[in-house]
Amino acid sequence: MTEETGRLDGRLAWARLPGKGPGVVFLPGFRSDMQGSKAVFLRDHCAARGQAFLRLDYSGHGESDGRFEDGTIGQWAADALALFDALTEGPQILVGSSMGGWIALLIARQRAARLAGLIGIAPAPDFTDKLLWPALPPEARQALARDGMIQLPSQYGEPTPVTRALIEDGKRQSVLDAPIDLPCPVRILQGMADPDVPWRHALRILDTLVQGDARVTLIKDGDHRLSRPEDLRLLAETLDSLLA
After folding, report:
1. By the 8 A CB rule, do 73 and 107 touch?
2. Is the pLDDT of residue 132 over 90?
3. In the structure, what pLDDT confidence band is assigned to residue 158 with cuts at 50, 70 and 90?
4. Which of 88, 123, 181, 206 has its CA 20 to 30 A from that of 175?
5. Residue 70: count of CB within 10 angstroms of its CB
6. Interacting residues of 138 by C-beta distance below 8 A, sequence separation 6+
7. How far apart are CA 238 and CA 25, in angstroms?
């Protein structure tokens, strides 16, 4: 099975495997992209199953056009929705990693009838307002208000630019302040040693979901990326159970 690649409107990069349905769509995290280990692992897993699969880069991420610091949650969700509409058909399972879990829930609001399942990997809906902002010291909040952008140290490499627009838009895109009613099973994989998204955040998501077919799997020694071989095996088993 040969993977197709392209750019939607000459701007948004994507890679797609043809195959049977339901299709699988991978939504990467904040400053991550479709070349990450989980995206490539799922690509190979879906290829072996003959399953349709789509991975993508939001604007300002990976191979897509744009500057990362010009993006917001709403913009990245709109990017993902445009790719979802243009490149998939029929029922789909959304797999969202970290911020991708938030994007998945925003897509679910718009395309609920097309969802066959949703998997969150350390999902971080509302992270700008509920995780990032409370952790900022007063001087960082003042700098953000004054300058419109700050640089936060990152354990994953270069400092992360955080903009006032990102924080303000994040409040408008909130999904955890009202019940979430999805027409499909939901599975959340969450590490308890995650330094970025506390495991109790996963329970908050679960508490917000209306439907009964929703489960959280806690991995006691799991970090934020959940990219170890045992984590990837669990991801494959979780996806296979929804595809069964």
Report:
1. no
2. yes
3. confident
4. 88
5. 13
6. none
7. 14
Share of the chain above pLDDT 70, in %: 100
Q: What tokens appear for 185 in the block?
A: 């099973």
Q: How far apart are CA 152 and CA 83, in angstroms?
A: 30
> What is the 3-class SS of the chain, one letter each residue?
CCCEEEEECCCEEEEEECCEEEEEEEECCCCCCCCCHHHHHHHHHHHHHCEEEEEECCCCCCCCCCCHHHCCHHHHHHHHHHHHHHHCCCCEEEEEECHHHHHHHHHHHHCHHHEEEEEEECCCCCHHHHHHHHHCCHHHHHHHHHHCEEEEEECCEEEEEEEHHHHHHHHHCCCCCCCECCCCCEEEEEECCCCCCCHHHHHHHHHHECCCCEEEEEECCCCCCCCCHHHHHHHHHHHHHHHC
Q: Which residues contact 68 (CB under 8 A, 6 or more apart)?
A: 31, 60, 61, 161
pLDDT of residue 89 exceeding 90, the answer is yes
Q: How confident is the model at residue 76 (pLDDT cuts 50, 70, 90)?
A: very high
Q: Which among 214, 195, 133 is positioned nearest to 166, based on CA atoms?
A: 133
Catalytic residue positions, numbered: 98, 194, 224
Cβ partners under 8 Å of residue 33, min gap 6: 39, 57, 61, 62, 63
